[in-house]
Amino acid sequence: ENFKMALIEQEINANAILLPADEGLAINVENMNRYLIQANKNQAKLNLTIDSTIVTFETVGWFFDGNKIYELETNPLDHGRRNTDNLTPDEVLKLVENAGSYLAHQVNGTGEFNYGWFACFDKKIKHYNSLRHASTTYSMLEAYELTENQAILEAATSALTFLEKNFIFEKGEVAYLIEPELREIKLGGSAATLLALTKYMQITGTKTYLPLCRKIANGILSLQDKTGKFTHVLEYPTLEVKDVFRIIYYDGEAVFGLLRLYEIDHNAKWLEAATKSFNHFLQADYWQNHDHWLSYCANEITKYIPDRAYYEFGLKNAFDNLTFIYERETTFPTFLELTIATKEMSLRMEQAGEYDLLAEYPIVELEKTIMKRALYQLNGYFYPELAMYYKNPARIEGSFFIRHQSFRVRIDDVEHNISGYVRFYGLLKQGKISAKAETVS
Fold first, then answer.
1. Residue 1: its pLDDT value, please?
2. CB 126 within 8 A of CB 117
3. Around 304, how many Cα atoms within 13 Å sit in the side-chain half-sphere?
């Protein structure tokens, strides 16, 4: 009334004032009044009724960080963050380092992560997930490889030590990653562990974890049948089958992990097992799943077996879903991973002279989609000008959030953004991508 009180979008978001309703949106009056009183905008509860008049308005803004003034975005989902027309390699490097540092700060003295936070209320997510512990550690090692930030490596090393002590089940020459809360063994957990341990050995030049990696790979092979199909979940500790299939991610992740071990160990049985499963993917038309792990393993396996059918699988996995990826309203960071892995594979196809196959696919549209997603994911990044509105800005600054999950910040949300931007940096730095994000025909 009389325009005495105004809330900007960032205040509304940071205090969970809007909620979904049966039709449109509803106002959480309790959260609104709590914020108004805490922010000294009102001394008493504001009474809203169904007949109350609410006026919406648009804003423009600037942010001064003590050194530089940033003009802020006014587009709907980008609103309130710094204006970024394009991403330079230096800016991407900073994103990766900030996100990697955020994860490093989430590793406690024992090597365990703070699993996540609901940013609006600085509320800790209580449960845990060993698969995401492993995959997040992998992304931290990727971040270190790019930034050479020692604090990130030290935290990742601590996380690996915790993983080995608390989540590994060994039985003879076989090992698995266990999920203690659910008392189960997931194919994807063992695969993520393999990725983390092999990445650690690659960047440190050591063979520290090679014996364990071989056991974990044997564990993955124990879940593979003669056709290459995997069993996804076992009961722990009985090793009885719990779920033959759980989620599509596990299959590509397992093949990718085996290939990364083969790169270090050079044991043909890892490549043979990966090939057997990839052939199963071909026969079962797995490309229809449009999964980022399938893009990763297609890119990886064609380094060793440049088979035309393998290339085509990787291309279909991305291009059949390209318009959807381009237009997707949520940030969905695995889309950037999927498209960049496909772009990397296409570059090697050019070197191999596979021009006729490449000619069947609109590579320019792939590049536009990569650029679009790389820029679009910034609306899920906690720049300081966004973080400052939330309950504990220092806790979340430099992390990535999921808007449609109440601005949740979970370690795997940050992980997938790091992995995508690390590869995006590589394309930019090498001058392998320059397309502007406009439209996909």
1. 63
2. no
3. 19
Question: Checking phi first, is residue 290 left (phi over 0); if not, alpha (psi -120 to 50) or beta?
Answer: left
Classify burial at 107, counting beta carbons within 10 Å of its beta carbon; exposed 0-12, middle 13-18, buried 19 or more. buried
Which tens digit of pLDDT belongs to each residue from 393-403?
999 999 999 99
- Lowest-confidence range among 161-170, 351-360, 390-399, 431-440? 431-440
Q: Residue 16: name the closest of 139, 135, 120, 91 by CA.
A: 120
Q: What angle do CA 300, 304, 310 make, to 5 degrees?
A: 65
- 189 in helix, strand or coil? helix
**Across-strand partners of 241?**
234
Cα separation of 438 and 435, whole Å? 9
Supply angle C-alpha 112, 114, 117, rounded to 5.
Answer: 165
Please tell me the pTM assigned to this model. Answer: 0.96
Per the CB < 8 A criterion, the answer to whether 183 and 236 are in contact is yes
Tokens standing for residue 62: 């600037």
Compute how many other C-beta atoms are within 10 angstroms of the C-beta atom of residue 402. Answer: 19
Say which residue the tokens 């795997």 belong to. Answer: 412
- Where is 62: in which H helix or E strand? strand 62-64
Q: How far apart are CA 356 and CA 167, in angstroms?
A: 47
Taking the C-alpha atoms of residue 368 and residue 219, their distance in angstroms, rounded to an integer, is 40
Evaluate the CA torsion angle 259, 265, 266, 268 in order and state its sign: negative
Residue 426 and residue 405: Cα distance in Å, rounded? 30
Which amino acid is present at 159?
A
Rounded average pLDDT over 14-34: 92
At residue 344, what is the residue type? E
Ordered by start, the domain boundaries in the chain are 9-71, 87-126+285-441, 167-283
Q: At what angle do helices 210-222 and 268-283 cross, to 10 degrees?
A: 30
Instruction: Give per-residue pLDDT as tens, 50-99.
Output: 888 889 999 999 999 999 999 999 998 999 999 988 899 999 999 999 99
Full DSSP string of 221-269 = HHTB-TTSPBP-EEETTT--EEES---THHHHHHHHHHHHHHHHH--HH
Nearest to 202 by CA among 274, 259, 151, 149: 259
Q: Are residues 18 and 12 in contact, defined by beta-carbon separation less than 8 angstroms?
A: yes
